[in-house]
């Protein structure tokens, strides 16, 4: 097993009993990367996932039982292997509520790397995990890769700001390459590590501002049994720290074995005359726990394990069959490097019964492995009771077949050969980019050949066959990207708000478009546009404001959308005018003569004086004729008639004319009463606007209520049937011009 210098010192700094620096509530969220690449090895030969688990479990073991400390755990990449769901595979498996030590350690221990690396999504979700208050908040993200789902890391902290949350973000990279390290530039505090000891130290530094360690060892006792009977003497027992360092012997004491150990993760080595040496893994020595373990050291018949296919494909799957297994509900089968300690494991599956089979993921390594059957103890420990014959995965040779050159922004077809493991992909990257770099890509499982979008920038690139589960490049092929020809032909001047015809020259790649923007507008700006795929020439609606502009050929293939060609255009002002009376009765119809370009979306409306730009009430489109007619509002007051357009948002006011609406006179004349079921004659006085009507309703009925009614346009006087129910009513003059229909005049009426 690899050794680490000063490991006990690191563990004391990291995972001993911790006390809060202040009494105020403190929230610490641990985010663990469970992407498929976590099966890869560190330079010292240990798998990344095993090291991360040991360090996090050791850290959790030393957390204090204090009401002011709240520790939660979020894991990404553990549920979905690939596809769109893999990019939202991030779960808060334990909330930020106290220190649920046993549950935290169990969640870490059972994590199985599987999927993608949705770091940005995970951090955005983490913003919802914290309370929106002034408490101390810390996120520690442990990852072995860069964002793999296209998330924008630079803006993830905005989600916290939107909730009014200040959070200290610490990112610990596990053996990241240069490209991955650079991807975290400017985001929180970053540190890269290459061993378990370095990871433990980095985690200690990340948390030291909110917790402080104490170094008191904890009493540990071990009870041995053989065939269920106590074994009180003649055994040698020692505990080995999971991250390396000197083993600590436990001495006999009152029929048991004991010693004081720092909090952390250990494996126990037990040697007896009957069974020889046995190793029990998965032991957590933790603050607030009894730290009492019982090991059954009696002989257990070896479980038979067979592996197929032989050799398995590196990075693929294998089937492990087992037979003659002991009883148990939480026994499990795993694979590990043959030289790994018994406590180490990679992919695993829980099993039941005397025989069966499981399918496990194989790391992308050509080194010697073995399958192991582990017998689970009631105290959480486990021991290996069966091993397969050793096997060495074999890498399948990969190759790529594609054009030697392509036009920037276009699409190419790529044929491939290779293992076609679940998360293998083909991508295009700049020549010499670090392993693990990717831009556009397709998964090999989606078909052969696949299609790739070519970068816009000319230069030397590489096509690469790679995998989300490996840091290496399986195959590479050079690709020369050449520049496309772009040009635009458009008028040099046009009327603002008009439509112009534009001819274009370009590759017509998916997402290519032509737009018009103010001169010198930032790259990526657009207003009205058309896609080149929709035809040549295309038509653009120009902005309503006169001035200096540019017509641009751009594309959605990059962000911000680049300008690939540009020509200037001057937009001249149109002549606008409105001819209306200076005053009109409220609720009447108004005839409006207009002058303007009559562009698509141009309209005339009436609004209260000084209303915000873009406001409208009744309106007519200029395309519907000249003059147009407007229904004026019912409320008297100061208004504006506006010439506007839908060509921009908010719709601009291109011309305005003041209008004063005067109050109309309303009156009803009728008898004061009438017989139930009879009729009543009503004389009315009013503007007789479209939608004006007279109705009878119960006294005090809500505004807008109506029963039988007659439109004023139907004559004067009007005749209305009376209700069958005697009582107090109102005759009302109302209008459909507003909702609810307003009461413009009311006259009491009694139905007898």
TrEMBL record:
* Signal peptide interval: 1-23
Please give the SUPFAM superfamilies that the UniProt record associates with this protein. vWA-like
Query: What are the UniProt keywords, alphabetically?
Result: Signal
Q: Does the keyword Signal apply?
A: yes
**Positions of the VWFA domain:** 27-174
Looking up SMART domains in the UniProt record yields: VWA
What's the protein name?
Answer: VWFA domain-containing protein
Q: From which source organism is this entry?
A: Deinococcus irradiatisoli
């Amino acid at each position: 097993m690899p050794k680490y210098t000063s490991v006990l010192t690191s563990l004391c700094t990291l995972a001993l009993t911790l006390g809060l620096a202040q009494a105020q509530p403190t929230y610490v969220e641990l985010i663990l990367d469970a992407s498929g690449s976590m099966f890869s090895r560190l330079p010292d030969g240990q798998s990344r996932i095993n090291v991360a688990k040991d360090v996090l479990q050791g850290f959790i073991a030393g957390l204090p039982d204090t009401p002011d400390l709240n520790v939660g755990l979020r894991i990404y990449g553990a549920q979905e292997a690939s596809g769109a769901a893999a990019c939202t595979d991030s779960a808060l498996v334990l909330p930020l509520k106290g220190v649920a030590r046993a549950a935290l350690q169990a969640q870490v221990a059972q994590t199985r790397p599987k999927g993608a690396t949705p770091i940005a999504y995970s951090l955005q979700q983490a913003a919802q995990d914290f309370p929106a208050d002034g408490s101390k908040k810390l996120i520690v993200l442990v990852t072995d890769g860069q964002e793999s789902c296209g998330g924008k890391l630079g803006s993830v902290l905005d989600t916290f700001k939107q909730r009014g949350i200040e959070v200290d973000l610490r990112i610990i990279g596990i053996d990241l390459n240069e490209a991955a390290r650079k991807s975290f530039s400017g985001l929180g505090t970053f540190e890269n590590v290459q061993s378990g000891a370095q990871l433990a130290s980095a985690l200690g530094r990340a948390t030291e501002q909110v917790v402080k360690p104490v170094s008191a060892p904890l009493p540990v006792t071990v009870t041995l049994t053989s065939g269920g009977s106590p074994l009180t003497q003649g055994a040698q027992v020692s505990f080995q720290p999971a991250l390396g360092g000197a083993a600590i012997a436990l001495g006999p004491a009152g029929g048991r074995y004991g010693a004081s150990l720092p909090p952390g993760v250990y494996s126990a080595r037990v040697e007896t005359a009957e069974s020889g040496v046995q190793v029990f893994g998965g032991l957590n020595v933790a603050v607030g726990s009894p730290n009492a373990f019982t090991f059954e050291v009696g002989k257990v018949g070896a479980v038979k394990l067979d592996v197929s296919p032989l050799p398995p494909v590196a990075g693929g799957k294998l089937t492990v069959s087992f037979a003659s297994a002991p009883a148990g509900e939480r026994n499990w089968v795993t694979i590990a490097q043959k030289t790994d300690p018994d406590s180490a494991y990679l992919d695993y599956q829980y099993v039941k019964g005397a025989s069966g089979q499981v399918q496990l993921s194989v790391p992308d390594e050509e080194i010697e492995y073995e399958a192991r059957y582990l017998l689970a103890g009631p105290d959480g420990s486990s021991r290996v009771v069966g091993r397969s014959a050793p096997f060495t995965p074999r890498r399948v040779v990969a190759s790529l077949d594609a054009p030697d050159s392509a036009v920037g922004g276009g699409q190419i077809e790529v044929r491939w050969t290779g293992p076609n493991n679940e998360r293998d992909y083909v991508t295009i990257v700049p020549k010499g980019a670090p392993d693990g770099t990717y831009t556009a890509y397709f998964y090999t499982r989606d078909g052969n050949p696949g299609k790739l979008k070519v970068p816009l920038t000319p230069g030397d690139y590489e096509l690469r066959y790679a995998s989300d589960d490996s840091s290496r490049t399986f195959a590479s092929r050079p690709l020369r990207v050449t520049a496309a020809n772009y040009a635009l032909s458009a008028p040099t001047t046009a009327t603002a708000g008009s439509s112009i015809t534009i001819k274009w020259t370009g590759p017509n790649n998916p997402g290519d478009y032509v737009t018009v923007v103010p001169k010198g507008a930032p790259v990526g700006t657009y207003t009205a546009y058309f896609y080149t795929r929709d035809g040549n020439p295309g038509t653009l609606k120009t902005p309503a404001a006169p001035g200096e502009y540019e017509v641009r050929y751009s594309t959605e293939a990059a962000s911000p959308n680049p300008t690939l060609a540009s020509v200037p255009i001057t937009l001249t002002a149109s002549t606008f005018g409105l001819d209306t009376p200076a005053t009109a009765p409220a609720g009447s119809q108004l005839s409006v003569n207009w002058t303007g370009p009559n562009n698509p979306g141009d309209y005339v409306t009436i609004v209260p004086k000084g209303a915000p730009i873009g406001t409208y009430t009744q309106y007519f489109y200029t395309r519907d004729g000249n003059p147009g007619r407007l229904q004026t509002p019912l409320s008297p007051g100061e208004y504006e008639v506006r010439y506007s357009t839908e060509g921009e948002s908010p719709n601009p006011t291109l011309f305005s004319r003041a209008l004063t609406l005067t109050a109309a006179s309303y009156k009803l004349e009728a008898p004061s009463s009438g017989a139930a079921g009879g009729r009543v004659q009503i004389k009315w006085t009013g503007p007789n606007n479209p939608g004006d009507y007279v109705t009878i309703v119960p006294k005090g009925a809500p505004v807008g209520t109506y029963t039988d009614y007659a439109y004023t346009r139907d004559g004067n006087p009007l005749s209305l049937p009376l209700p069958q129910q005697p009582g107090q009513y109102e005759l009302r003059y109302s209008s459909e011009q507003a909702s609810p229909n307003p009461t413009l005049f009311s006259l009491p009426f009694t139905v007898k």
